[in-house]
Amino acid sequence: MAAPSSEPRKRGFLGDIITLLRPFWPMTLLSTLVGTLGGLATAWLLASINRALHEPDGFTGTLALQFLGLCALSIAGSAVAGIGNSVAGQKIIACLRRDVAARILATPIDVLERHKSHKLLAILNGDIGTVSAFTFNFAGYAVSFATVVASLFYLFVISPLACAIVVLSFSVGTGLALWRRQIWRSDYREVRATEDVLQKQYRTITEGARELQLNHDRRRHVHETLLAGAADRIADIKIVAMRRFWLFDSVSEAIFFLTVAVLLSTRAWTGLSASAVSGAVLVLLYVRGPLEQTLQALPAMSSAEISMQRVADLTAELPRDNGQESATDAPEFRNAISLQDAVYAFHKPDNMPDGMEGFVLGPLNLTIRKGETLFIVGENGSGKTTLVKLLLGLYAPTSGHLLLDGEPVTADSVSGYRQLFSSVFSDYFLFDDLVAPSPQDLEIARHWLERLEIGHKVKVVDGKFSTIDLSTGQKKRLALVQAFLDHRPIMMLDEWAADQDPTFRKIFYTEILPELKALGRTLIVVSHDDRYFDCADTVIGLKAGKIIDVKATPQTACLAS
Ligand SMILES: Nc1ncnc2c1ncn2[C@@H]1O[C@H](COP(=O)(O)OP(=O)(O)OP(=O)(O)O)[C@@H](O)[C@H]1O
């Protein structure tokens, strides 16, 4: 089995945005074109107003009609651009969310374990929204851009000098905005990194609520140092950025008034006509809004660029699903699964001190025959769960092979291979519903709920369990019902009995496991219950990642114990 392929990131930010917009190009193109038309109409409207100001006949009927027509076009252009934008924006968010989720679902477990879940959540919740917030306004920027360019063109036609003064004024404003963007880029990088820390602390206060309420010192440390530290740092960076923003905004405003003053006060010297001066003031007044809107998009663009980078970095590491996961059927399980000189070595964590190495399981040789009950035993940290993940195809061997009926399980076949198993890990996830249950499934579920002595607590109602608010041991019994309903030939139960009371623990080993075996299930059971090791056909003992003991036991002994 090969390691997941990662796609090198070749495109730039603009390329990413265009790729995102590509599926919605008819709508984006239409709204951008109509929006641009609206922007041109606005510029023409300014020209008409200026002409009306200096027309000897004033606001003539023709001008009035033209004014109305242009108003309609300008308003309609903005509206169509706005609506088209929001539709494309929402679809882009949905698309990105689906794509990232599909990639996470198709990602090998060890890669996923290396990405901490709070970081994945920050990307799913925060970054995707930031990217979309920028693409949302794509047509809006086109409207603003068209208005600015067309208005300047009009001004150039009536007076190149007035146009030059206005362009100079806008250029200084634009220069300031670009400078501001540059500073915001580095600020936002720190904001975004701190948001990951914040997300981690949010998880701590929700998932560790019990522990924190019982320990005031830790609670204070988490709340006042870690969480408040991250929240305050983000606030501090944003306060400085906003202060800078308003300072730059005031300077831009001052430049605007200064330009108007220059235009008015130097008329005698520059020889500008009244129509050129009023045209320039109109353009300055009216175009300032759209221009600022475009310039204000620059910080949003920086944020989107960094967020896009994070989404792209993540998705480059995660494989594309291509629908293969759902399309692959389980192969037939005829004889045995085995490991041949299989090794799994964990990556050494970045913060692991020198001289310490990551855990290595193997090399292992092991065969599990169809219908066999195998117990994996060993002290804490000996590698039992790691071995199970290797056997289930969740970890790919670093070297050696995983074989199904003598054939190596490859990167192409592993997804189907995994469908041979149902599992209850020691840190299992409990689903509260059944996937498309048949009437027989409902019957089987009822049987197993009774058999596991939780039938009085849980029923199946409309394809869902009526509750999953159960005791720890009862939840685990429900997880076993779920695993059984998966109808897989091999069941893996990792320390399943650890949370059960002594009576039910005995029932599990001496009745439930033999029943499952009698139903044809191959069973892989991780256990510390040495009292019941006789209930296995084979027991393998692990120590420091190596098999130290293999024992074949007749299962009849279990029934007598
Ligand atoms: N995600 C991980 N990243 C790095 N190392 C890991 C990871 N998971 C486990 N390990 C290492 O692998 C070793 C074996 O872990 P494993 O969970 O397989 O032990 P185990 O035998 O199931 O233990 P237990 O009886 O406590 O459940 C551990 O000592 C740990 O250091």
Notes on the structure:
The protein is of the alpha/beta class. It has two domains: 13-322, Up-down Bundle (ABC transporter transmembrane region fold); 336-560, Rossmann fold (3-Layer(aba) Sandwich), CATH 3.40.50.300. It has helices spanning 13-21, 25-54, 61-105, 109-114, 117-136, 138-158, 160-207, 209-214, 216-265, 267-270, 274-317, 324-327, 384-391, 414-418, 439-451, 472-485, 502-518, 556-560; strands at residues 336-345, 360-369, 373-378, 399-404, 407-408, 421-424, 460-461, 464-465, 490-494, 522-526, 538-543, 546-552. The protein has a six-stranded mixed β-sheet with strand order 6-9-10-3-11-12, with helices on both faces. Strands 2-1-4-5 form a four-stranded antiparallel β-sheet. The protein has a two-stranded antiparallel ribbon with strand order 7-8. It starts with 12 loop residues before the first helix and ends with a helix. The structure holds adenosine-5'-triphosphate. Adenosine-5'-triphosphate (ATP) is lined by residues 113, 346, 358-359, 378, 380-386.
Major sheet: arrangement of strands: 6-9-10-3-11-12
What proportion of the residues form beta strands (DSSP E)? 5-15%
CATH class of the largest domain: Mainly Alpha
Biggest beta-sheet profile: 6 strands, mixed
Associated small molecules: adenosine-5'-triphosphate
Overall shape: it is: elongated
> How many domain regions?
2
Overall mean pLDDT? 83
Terminus-to-terminus distance? 42 Å
CATH superfamily of the largest domain: ABC transporter type 1, transmembrane domain
Structural class: alpha/beta
Number of helices: 18
Radius of gyration: 34 Å
Tally of strands: 12
Uncertain runs: 1-9, 322-326
User: Which architecture name of the largest domain does CATH use?
Assistant: Up-down Bundle
Helical residues, percent: 55-70%
Order of helices and strands: HHHHHHHHHHHHEEEHEEHEHEEHEHEEEH
From the 3D structure, determine the CATH topology of the largest domain: ABC transporter transmembrane region fold
